[in-house]
Amino acid sequence: MPGSQLKRLKASLREQGVIGPQQSKKQRRKVAQNGKVNTNKRAAALDSIREEFNPFDFKHNARGPKFQVTSNRPALGDAAKGITGRPGDAKAIGEERRRQTLLIEMNRRNKTGGIRDQRFGENDASMTYEEKMAQRFVREKQSHKTSLFDLEDDEPIDGLTHMGKSLSFSEKDDFEETDLLDPEGSDSGNESGGSQRGLKRVRGADDVQDRDDENIEGEPERKKTKQEIYKEIIAKSKLHKAERQAQKDADEDLREELDQELSDIQSLLFLKPKLQSSEGNEATVKPDDPGRERMERDYDLRLRQLAMDRRAKPSDRTLTEEEIAQRDVEKLKELEDKRQRRMRGEELSDSEDTKEEDAHDTQSAPKNLGWFGEEEEENFKLGSGIRTRPTATELGFDDEDDFIVEDDLIASGSDLEPIESEDENSSAEDEEDDQDDEFTKGLLDETEARGTAFTKEFDSTRNETSTISSCPETLEQLLSISRGLPSEQIPALIQKVRILYHPKLASENKSKLAGFSRVLVQYLFHLSNASSSPPFATLESIIRHVHSLAKSFPVEIAEEFRLQIDNLASRCLSPTLGDLVILMAIGSIFPPSDAFHPVITPAMLLIARYLGQKISKTTTDFVQGAFMGSLALHYLKLSQRFCPEFMNFSLNTLASLAPTRPAKKLGNFPQHEPVPGIRITGASEAEIKKLKVVHCITPPSSELEDLSIRVATLETTLQLLDTASLLYASKPSFIESFEPVVLALSHLAKGSCKSQLPTALIDHVVKLQTKLHTMLTMSKLARRPLELHHHRPLAIKTAIPKFEDQFDPDRHYDADKDRAELAKLKAEHKKERKGAMRELRKDANFMAREKLRVKKQKDAAYEKKYKRLVAEIQGEEGREANAYEREKQARKRAAKRQG
Amino acid sequence: MPSTVDEASLKRKRAKVPEKPSKRTKHESSDEEEEDRQAEILLLEDEILKSKKNYNNITVLFEFAKSQHDPEVALFSMVSLCRVFLRLLASGNLSRKAGQSERETVVVQWLKARLSEYKKLLVSVLCEEQSASTALTLSMRLLKAETQTTSDKSESTFPKLFLKEIIGALISERFEDVQQEFCEKYLAEYADIRFYAFQALSDILSNHNTSSVDSGLFDSVFDLLSFFEGVPESTEDLGSLYVDLPKKKSSLVLSLHQQKKQCQSAWIALLKLNPDRQQRKRLLEIMAESIAPWFTQPELLMDFLTDSYNAGGSLSLLALSGVFYLIQTRNLDYPLFYHKLYSLLDDGILHSKHRSMFLRLLDTFLASTHLPAALVSSFIKRLARLSLNGPPSAIVAVIPWIYNLFKKHPLCTFMVHRVMRTPEAKAAVESEGMDDPFDENEDDPMQTKAIDSCLWEVVQLQSHYHPNVATIAKILSDQFTKQWYNMEDFLDHSYNSLIEAELSKSVKKPPVVEFMIPKRIFLPNDPVSGVEDNLIIKLWEFQ
């Protein structure tokens, strides 16, 4: 190693090839050809040498470099060389940044106003001038595209070209091409490169391609002049303008052409009534021919289909019979799957959590596993039927008056999938047909009629609907409307209301209809309570109306039913007929098999409460209980859930109605002592009749009727127990549940009772008894010891501390996550604080320095001025003195001469 | 009041007597006006206090007080009489002193006779609804004054007799607010009144003819005695003395032990009245909390409690807590306690209104981990059996209770998880199924073989119609990760609370609606259509 610094510098310069022996001309040219690469190399070499020779530019670890083993991360870059920082650079950068921000602020202090330069990239030093111009141009282009309907901006796909190249900005801007971007700047390029460029520009435009290739390969710093760029831009915009003009003309042509064709289509679309009427005029010969009418309707339908076909997507092809059947089967299967899942209560996203919660809950209702919270994320497609349906506008009918036939008023199950076309919908209707065809048909007919001849339909319904001035939204309104009508007319009235206030007809109809559906539920209750023998056919049809409305307004109807349930809860043990009808309606409108249901669950609880708490005293009570029992079984039929209260009540009925008292206890249920006179006696001749619902509220008129009702109740209870035994046959405790039943039955079949009961009933008892016997033995055979706890064994909590494989002493292994987080945050805060203080200090330093500099500058300027003035004055004074001296000398000389 | 004044006024007494009748007539003439009456009474009172000569005015006041037609005047004169007697007592005019002349002795005796007459009047007024409250206050004040002045301080005695009369009057009629007032103002506050009141009560009750207990008397005494919910813990809690008693006597009154003794005797006297079933229930309901703590010898309750416990039904349930108290504090050895407890688990227990109380106690009785598993499993199995017929509110309490027992007695978990070990046993079960080894009719919980049985009942309840009940029933088949369930969360439920809980949630999400609209709901389907009628149509005839 050479001793002196200078010698070492020279040696390293030579080593890097920066200086060397004189090169021949040939060698120099070669070097020049390599050009840029060489200069880069040279600059890098110079940099490294500079770094090497300035020991204060780096910050090193005070105790020398770290050993490799202390860190598991490989050291890279500076760190490899043991450099931990570059204070000089950092300082310079900091200084520069301050000059850019703080200094400007300082200078602007106490000043207001000024001009803000918002030109793109004006203050961005990193952009070259060309880049700036390009960006501004792009910005301008983009800002033009404001209006969606600006036809002028619709560029043809080819777009503008320049020299055969697309000028579109979607891919790559011309200005962003490598040839324009001169990353080094023109000043860094060497002389030879510049001359070469100059030469190339002289060449013809035909070898642009070549040039481009060359540029990509070896000539990155070729650069267009500003003039060239502007020329190009101007040319481009001119071309663009011309193109737009041409496009506009073409559009105009097309539109005119379309306008001419449109009159035909319009006549098809909008002049249907006229068409019809003209057809009607033709058919005046047989105006009331039904075949004719149907044909017209068919024609109308076909026409709409045609109109829709235009927009139909190719995927909407007509399905074959098998496909439709297949789809139906799939849909039904899907629905059944969903029902099963709901039945198992699987919508609970985290049953474990809720259970924990429920156990923790110290409030009065610890086990209210709400079905609400858990179901939140489950999306019931059934519920959102209305929304998935395309609106009339989507279907191509802009006119609301143009009533769509397919939009069946019964929001049928077809709302599972959006209906795109008529035939698809008709298939959905077909599928519905087997369930409720005659129910919907009337409505459909009417809507169709409405669609074709609205006024005519209106005429036909006027006799009933003329009284409907507004949609009945309270029970009183509905009652006032329906007052004069016989009960058979009421379904028709409801239909009318539903048609007149169909949601499609006006926007507020939806809420009106929702209110109406609430009223219907109330009306259901009212109507069934109104007389001792309510019109069940009407009630049935109202329930079905409510059911179909429930598909559109599930929340409203559910809330109304819950209100009714709430009312019923207060008089649970003495329900009216209306309550029974409401419970029936709930059981048919809502799926009773669901594990959690906002309506079903409380309704079932009410039924069970009746069965559990009612102590039957009169025949009516027993009939009511039997009805409640059948409701309970109706609710639990699909889910096969167990209802202890039903068993208790039925057993109590058997024990209470039996002609004699059972000798021993029948089972573990609380047995109530019947009131005297309720036991069936001397009914051996009685005929077994089917129980009537009205008996639930009206006490029997005569002794004989009383007896026959009691016998019928006993019979019904037997049937109910029969059904229940089928439902619960697979339950693990079937034996315990039904052994009391067998005991009660054998008591009924015993001599003392046998003589008092009709033989048909005894036959039934015996039959049920033998059936239960076999079922009990079957159940016994099927019974296995419980093995409920085949769970994965719980791990014993370990006391061994966790071993870190890759322990890092710098890291904190805090087991408490919150605390670790907090510590991290605190450390960060401390660091930031220190950094901020340092920055502030540096800022203050900088400002002081700047002020000093300004002051010095000012002082220097002042000094200079002062000196200049002094010098000036002195100069002037000197001249005057000289002149005086000269004058004096001259005078002296003159005086001498004279003297 | 200084006695010299009385000496002086004594001389003038004769002179003033003749004036009195004229005054009286004058006053009587203005009989109509109430205020005049009251003014007259005040005047009379004033005159009495001014001079001994006017003592005869007392008789006039008595006449007023006894007059039936004007209760307000009667009340007013009674108050005024009370004032008179209080003053007289305070001035010592009612006590015989040494060296008094015979005439004076006669006067004192006359006054004493009037005083006792007044007392009788007060006691009789206590039995009248509207004035009872005032009479009570007056008599209590008189009682206080009497003790303080009757004799010299060293040997003053509590007027037990008067108090007894007061209490006798109080309990003979049922004026609840007066009784309440007596309890709150005197019984609760003053140790001596409490002490002597207990004494008086036990005296009254023991003298009472046992054959004829009228329920009114029982209820009044019961109310008086059960007024104290807690027993005073220390002497400080006993309260102060109403009358100043000599040290010796006050120490007796202020001793906690003595108080308890008196109360105990009062209670025992009440229990001896042969209460009927309803009364027994009332007694048993507060037995452990309010009655038994008063007893210095709770063993005395033993007969009553065991009798009640053996009576069966809800009485046994209620007696249970009392018996338990005795077992806990007195180490009462109840033979076959668990046997008896097991027999209480009858079909009505889950439907009884004392269910939660009973389950709480049952929880306590079976809390020990030292109980044999066979016994615990009998209880578990029995309750599981019963819950097959129980209301949901009972099931939700029983299941966590079973869980807690399982955690305490892991041996019992065989009831939910029993793997057949030998291939023979497995084959036997496969071929013949399994009979429940549990013997329902066995009375001895150690012999029921419940430990060999399984809880099929709970598995059945997992498909209970109420979803929450079903979910709770599932905790027994889940892994037992939870340490225990807090029974208090599950005990107090009813159909009402369950329905309310359901209805209080609002409907946020559109509820699921049945997909198919049934063709027929009430009326039978056409047989042609082939659609099956629903259950209700099959069984019922509409129309």
Overview of the molecule:
Helices cover 61% and strands 1% of the residues of chain A. With 899 residues, chain A is an all-alpha fold. In chain A, helix 24 (600-613) runs parallel beside helix 26 (644-657). A two-stranded antiparallel sheet of chain A has the order 1-2. Chain A has a two-stranded antiparallel sheet with strand order 3-4. In chain A, strand 3 (161-162) and strand 4 form a beta hairpin. Residues 170-220, 274-287 and 348-466 of chain A have low confidence and may be disordered. Chain A has 31 helices and 5 strands. Among the domains of chain A are: 5-108, no CATH class; 591-783, no CATH class; 850-899. Chain B is elongated and about 115 Å long. Chain B has helices spanning 3-16, 19-29, 34-50, 57-66, 71-91, 102-126, 132-149, 160-172, 176-187, 191-207, 215-225, 247-253, 256-271, 277-285, 287-291, 302-311, 314-330, 337-343, 355-365, 373-387, 392-408, 423-432, 456-461, 467-473, 488-491, 495-504, 535-539, and one strand at residues 540-541. Among the domains of chain B are: 1-150, no CATH class; 365-508, no CATH class; 512-543, no CATH class. Helix content of chain B is 60%, strand content 0%. Chain B has 543 residues and is mostly helical. Strand 5 of chain A pairs parallel with strand 1 (540-541) of chain B.
